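Priority: low. Protein: Glutamyl-tRNA reductase. Input follows.
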Amino acid sequence: MNLLVVGLSHRTASVPLLERLVLAPGEAPAVLAELVGMPYVDEAVVLSSCNRVEIYASVTAFHGGLADIGGLLAARAGLPMSELAPQLYVHYEADAVRHAFRVAAGLDSMVVGESQILGQLRDAYNTAGEQGTAGRLMHELLQQALRVGKRVHAETEIDRAGQSVVSAALAYGQGATAPVEGRPALVIGAGSMGALALATLRRAGASPLYVTNRGHARAERLAELHGAQAVPFAELPSLLERVDVVVSATASPEPVLDAPLIAGAGRDLLVLDLALPRDVAPAVRDLPGVTLVDIELLSESLSGTADSEERAGEEIVAAEVEAYLTWLRGADVAPTVAALRARADEVVEAELRRLAQRCPELGDAARAEVAHSIHRIVQRLLHQPTVRVRQLAAAPGGEAYAQALRELFDLHIPAAEIDPAHASEVHP
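Result:
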């Protein structure tokens, strides 16, 4: 399988380091191209969100693949590998499958059970597909991971009450300030996180709602969907004077809000910075009357205690991992079984041609009866071994049985290709 996952998240790395590694909009194609151009990387998918950056890859060798991917991450971070390595997590083969399924289910998220990661994982997979860097292994893995994520959300209440990074940040902020109900609120950014922020603020009773974005047309579309008012980005300074709550979630590489701009608002503010890189300059935290909640603070405040729904999700993931690995081992032996049967058919046909040449007096009926008998004998001889090798191959370490079969019968198996469009159909 040679599946490798290398990454960093809020659990292993600081926010400043994540800020250096997070992909800017439109940057993924170049990173994917660089990855698959490396000596040991055949396929790659890059997942980049507000609290993780990780690379899923099909590699030809573990150590070589790790060196390739680690080197790319170290270069992006501007750090020697020796400094970056302690903050990386590495998963290989079965552990990589388990990690992918847990990520899709929201079990590895900052806010456990949040469903936004499913969309982010789907976008990462689609981008890799468009760039041609997702082959058989990535198609199989990501399609199953997305299915498992949906199953966990459907069969448990892990995402009860609409948990998200936005709702968690808002709850944390309201613990230090007055409730947002009836208070004017502004969302900066018109992407998926901005849309989620508007929906969350609306449910919390904030009113009126404003949204601003450098691209005003996107702000207008978002405002129409959520009953908000779109305001030109140039009016941000005056807008800050009219609101009590600000949620910033842009893709800007530089801070959108700094201390002079916030201080000029002249009023108390609850500011939620949900962007990575961060939208709000650190100095804002020291301003009187300002409560700032960012990804770093939120990560430190959230508890990692598992509840019954998390445990139920983990049980589903464990069962799905085992089912996937069993199917994968069985799928890997199928070409060997097919090649063995084909070799048997070739031998039978060669011997029947030889018989026809040596015994031309045999009539058509006799030759047909002989052919039928020989085919039945060969098939009966092969039946039990091929059934048994499928069973053995489904167990851990079972690939050795298929290899033994190839060695014994000198079978040469070309690289098996599964149509990506049907990858999800072959899993039970």
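Residues 416-428 have pLDDT under 50 and may be disordered. The chain has 16 helices and ten strands.
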